[in-house]
Amino acid sequence: LVVSDIHMGSFYSKESTLNKLLNCVYFDEIILAGDVIDFIKIPTFTEHTADLFETIARMNKQDKKIVYVVGNHDIAFSKFVGKTIAGIQFVNEYEFEYADRRYRIEHGDKYETGIVHWRFTMSIISIFHDLLERVFKWNLAAWYVRQQQKKRKLRRIWDIMKWNKDADVFIMGHTHIPEVVIWVDEDENIKTYVNTGDWVEHSTYVLIKDGQLRLKNFT
Predict the structure, then answer these.
(1) Residues near 20 by beta carbon (within 8 Å), at least 6 away in sequence
(2) Are 109 and 4 in contact (CB under 8 A)?
(3) pLDDT of residue 44
(4) pLDDT for 41
(5) 142 near 200, Cβ under 8 Å?
(6) Which of 125, 122, 133 is nearest to 72 (CA)?
(7) Dihedrals φ, ψ of 33, to 5°?
(8) Strand 101-106, strand 93-98: pairing
(9) What is the dihedral of CA 96, 99, 100, 105, to 10 degrees?
(10) How far apart are alpha carbons 137 and 114 in whole angstroms?
(11) How remote is the C-alpha of 40 from its chain's centroid?
């Protein structure tokens, strides 16, 4: 099971919905692909947050493997990369072989350019963003995603896959745009790009099972 961009602690995070998913979908390994906790806003944790943490803690007792790919909103965890803490394996990227295909999972922020890498500036913007959401109930994250969809170019996906040409399946989050693109390259290999979406505007996840990959919407 692969999920990303939960943004726990932010105003529009669908923590209770994700908790329902984790309690009703069978999986033996979960990859949290970045921006799980929104540290660069002013996170406010609720009963739903506690319930979600309790579910994740229960996974350890059930011997489920937990991999945490660090994103740009939870970059505070970058000091944990390469370590396993409380049963959670922290990484910058995660690779594995399954059904004769090489999978690579990253958060995806490293393929961005510009202001997203100015950490101090992004922290200030995110604090104002958080206040506007809480005070005026404006879902600015959803508005930003719609703006990105309007100007998004497919060529960007080709560039990402060119940098990851040794992977058959590349999975990332970050953009909050759930999508799958499949094509055959010049060597007649099937290549797949997947974006897991998010748990702010969407409720999307990836399930890798029975030799297949599915991008699903949880309702």
Answers:
(1) 218
(2) no
(3) 85
(4) 76
(5) yes
(6) 122
(7) -90, 45
(8) antiparallel
(9) -30
(10) 28
(11) 16
Tell the residue number behind the tokens 């949290």, with chain if given: 32
For the chain (219 residues), the mean pLDDT of every run of 10, in chain order, is 95 93 95 93 86 90 93 92 95 97 95 62 66 69 64 69 90 94 90 96 96 95
Which of 136-142's residues contact partners 24+ apart within 8 Å by CB, and which partners?
139/12, 139/200, 139/201, 141/7, 141/10, 141/12, 141/176, 141/198, 141/200, 141/201, 142/12, 142/200, 142/201
Q: Which residues contact 42 (CB under 8 A, 6 or more apart)?
A: 9, 127, 130, 131
pLDDT at 159: 81
The 3-state DSSP class for residue 123 equals: helix
Three-state DSSP class for 36?
coil
Nearest CA among 133, 179, 106, 105 for reference residue 38:
133
